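Batch manifest line 142
LIGAND: SDN
JOB: complex structure
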Amino acid sequence: MPTRSFTDLYVEVQQFYARQMRQLDERKLEAYAETFTDDAEFGHTPGREPARTRAGIVADLREFHKKFENDPVQRRHWFNMIDLEPQDDGSMRSTCYALVVTTRTAGAPTIAPSCVVNDVIVRGEDGNLLLKSRRVDHDQPF
Ligand code: SDN
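JOB STATUS: finished
ARTIFACT:
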């Protein structure tokens, strides 16, 4: 197993997030769910039961996106301020900021919600990074 510097890990996590969030924003929900472990837990909205397992994540995101069926929007999740804390067991805690930018055909883009993302990142058997859990906290309570 090659040893990785913190810089290597940090860049790897940035690339992981860039690919992952583009998959979500392009509504490639199966591909997005594949970036989680199969027993993962994912909560994106306070007060809503977190989704569990990859299949559960796909079903939950399908349900969530129904509200845009008659409202074609482009959503983009912008990640920044990634604070990475490697753990003794080889996992990593990652805390970062996320802004959701929504663009419609007319009008100015809206920026909401403003979130803090709490991830636990592990390495899968093939060596790729996977999320064991993701909890998204929103700055503005509903
Ligand atoms: O995957 C994420 C999300 C996310 O999936 C979100 C969803 O709706 C589906 C990573 C980082 C941040 C987020 C944030 C959200 C926001 C959430 C609620 C909403 O947009 O109204």
